[in-house]
Description:
The chain is of the alpha/beta class.
Amino acid sequence: MWAEKDIKKVLVSEEQICNRAKELGAQITEDYASKPPLLVALLRGSVPFLAELIKHIDLDIQYDFMDVSSYEGTESIGDIKIIKDLDTSVKGLDILLVEDIVDTGRTIRTVCETLLHKGASSVKVVTLLDKPSRRIVDVKADYVGFEVANEFVIGYGMDFDQKYRCLPYIGVLKDECYQNIEE
Ligand code: IMP
């Protein structure tokens, strides 16, 4: 595969992700049995996870997308801005926010507050990865795929300067990949 030369290590394999998505889907199915949620996926990182997760939610769910500004390179940039809003009204709906990774927590805090402000009945968060050691804002995801250490990760939707999103696993890049981009 083209990216193999850039990968220092694989943290979570495709098989592990699929198995965990099955477990999360079953839990979500149980928890929302009386009223299916609207899944709100944050572009673009959460798309592969959303696609896997919805196969395992056995409810009449719908999904929509939001795009918020987040990272340039490996560092956070200032405040979160909404670049693309939802097409669906959230009034009276139970929302399940789908995220690729919760890092400082700023993104999910801002988006959750925005959705509640717009009249959502409830907002919960499902994230493929959680990096609790980097938390700045006191927030907790309701459903977590895997907890990871304080390392920048790529793959399964997550990018480094828009690269590596399409890898079917989650990995860590070799140090020289960051140096190359700075030159
Ligand atoms: P937060 O607002 O700091 O929690 O950042 C969340 C967003 O930052 C995620 O949706 C990702 O787009 C990005 N992000 C945070 N950590 C990583 C990482 O290790 N790899 C790739 N993107 C990351």
